[in-house]
Automatic annotation (TrEMBL):
Gene3D superfamilies on file: Acetylglutamate kinase-like, VC0802-like
Organism: Streptomyces pseudovenezuelae
Alphabetical UniProt keywords: Amino-acid biosynthesis, ATP-binding, Diaminopimelate biosynthesis, Kinase, Lysine biosynthesis, Nucleotide-binding, Transferase
Name of protein: Aspartokinase
Highest taxon listed in the record's lineage: Bacteria
EC category name: transferase
Family: Belongs to the aspartokinase family.
Positions of the ACT domain: 272-348, 354-427
Length: 427
């Protein structure tokens, strides 16, 4: 008997009919001889609606109470799903994140998992039950407060439980049939990827691909947990994410790593430019120490060549839009210590990234990437590269056309429209 962890996103359990459909799939996995642990997200746009409600009540809700509010969505889903499974003649028990043993640090709204002690889950499985766990949440190690893992945290919950329970696979069910070479909402002829390495998936996730959360893939790679991304709306095989192709799932077919894995985009970032920074040792360190002390993650960084006449330079970096105000305030408070002239803030930007492990051994990839953007009339503001990724920042309005141009330039377009988005508002 194998142990399988399944995770269902909000679009899969958006309404009563969706919950019943998911319950049938879970029972089928149980009938196939597996022990089944299920991680579930809040129904549909419930989390967004709770956020809206909190903002109407308080413009800056306290982190502890905000987490307490948001975790209500997953508790509703898990209880309803357990009821639906019992109606199908199988026993199911639902557990909150804290009951499931998900131990986190004390950072509210974006806690990180420290440990998983799934004693109650193992007991439920040993008794023949299906275990339903509320995703996205845990309990802090020191204060025992309820915490949330940040948006998309249910994926991380699922992989963490799979690692702690030594599961054979972690199945992530969503509203598309797998990982595609681009967002099918933007590129209609995007192709489904049968298998992708952890490293490539990490880059795609970090670059804006919303199918899997970056932290989830990072956790899976660390503990070597294969992920199978599938749609809960169809019975099709999805995308395997693992350290190497899994011959059991792929049959006898030899799967060779493609030169280009895909094109990702992200319009959730903003750009901050620190103008008139003295070009001397320690200035950049002071800027980014200020940002780090404010607990803000940054992405791309570019420093201009200093002007010979003034000895001043500009430093630009990108960060999540949601952290923009906090970053500006932190830098303004430390303006005297850093010595810059002014700050510029721009939240009308977008990032396009080309990802592929084969890029580093294939000359001409970079040239083709920039030629595609040029032919599409897209202007580039920032550039960042790694061995398997090229990222650029452009105007937000140019992102859809840029993604389609790059996707076509590298021969990733399918002959037919095979990407189907079954549900979800994309909110």
């Amino acid at each position: 008997m194998g142990l399988v962890v399944q995770k269902y996103g909000g679009s899969s359990v958006a309404d009563a009919e969706g919950i019943k459909r998911v319950a049938k799939r879970i029972v089928e996995a149980k009938k196939n001889g597996n022990q089944v642990v299920v991680v579930v997200s809040a129904m549909g746009d419930t989390t967004d609606e709770l956020i809206d409600l909190a903002e109407q009540v308080s413009p800056m809700p306290a982190g502890r109470e905000f987490d307490m509010l948001l975790t209500a969505g997953e508790r509703i889903s898990m209880a309803l799903l357990a009821m639906a499974i019992k109606n199908l003649g199988h026993e199911a028990q639902s557990f909150t994140g804290s009951q499931a043993g998900v131990i986190t640090d004390s950072v509210h709204n974006k806690a990180r998992i420290i440990d998983v002690t799934p004693g109650r889950i193992r007991t439920a499985l040993d008794e023949g039950n299906i275990a339903i766990v509320a995703g996205f949440q845990g309990v802090s190690q020191d204060k025992k407060d309820i915490t949330t893992l940040g948006r998309g945290g249910s994926d991380t919950t699922a992989v963490a439980l799979a690692a702690a329970l030594d599961a054979e696979v972690c199945e992530i069910y969503t509203d598309v049939d797998g990982v595609f070479t681009a967002d099918p909402r933007v590129v209609k002829k995007a192709q489904k990827i049968d298998w992708i390495a952890f490293e490539d998936m990490l880059e795609l996730a970090a670059s804006g691909s919303k199918v899997l959360l970056h932290r989830c893939v990072e956790y899976a790679r660390r503990y070597d947990i294969p992920i199978h991304v599938r749609s809960s709306f169809s019975g099709l095989q999805g995308t395997w994410v693992s350290s190497a192709p899994l011959t059991k799932q792929q049959g006898d077919q030899k799967v060779e790593q493609a030169i280009i894995s895909g094109v990702a985009h992200d319009t959730s970032e903003a750009k901050v430019t620190v103008v008139g920074v003295p070009d001397k040792p320690g200035e950049a360190a002071a800027i980014f120490r200020t940002i780090a002390d404010a607990e803000i993650n940054i992405d791309m960084v570019v420093q201009n060549v200093s002007a010979a006449s003034t000895g001043l330079t500009d430093i630009s970096f990108t960060l999540p839009k949601t952290e923009g105000r906090k970053a500006i305030d932190a830098l303004e408070r430390n303006k005297g210590g850093i010595g810059f002239d002014s700050l510029r803030y721009d939240d009308q930007i977008g990032k396009i990234s080309l990802v592929g492990a084969g890029m580093k051994t294939n000359p001409g990839v970079t040239a083709s990437f920039f030629e595609a953007l040029s032919d599409a009339g897209v202007n580039i503001e920032l550039i960042s590269t790694s061995e398997i990724r090229i990222s650029v920042v452009t105007r937000a309005d140019d992102v859809p056309e840029a993604v389609r141009a790059v996707h076509s330039a590298f021969g990733l377009d399918s002959d037919t429209v095979e990407a189907v988005v079954y549900g979800g508002t994309g909110r």
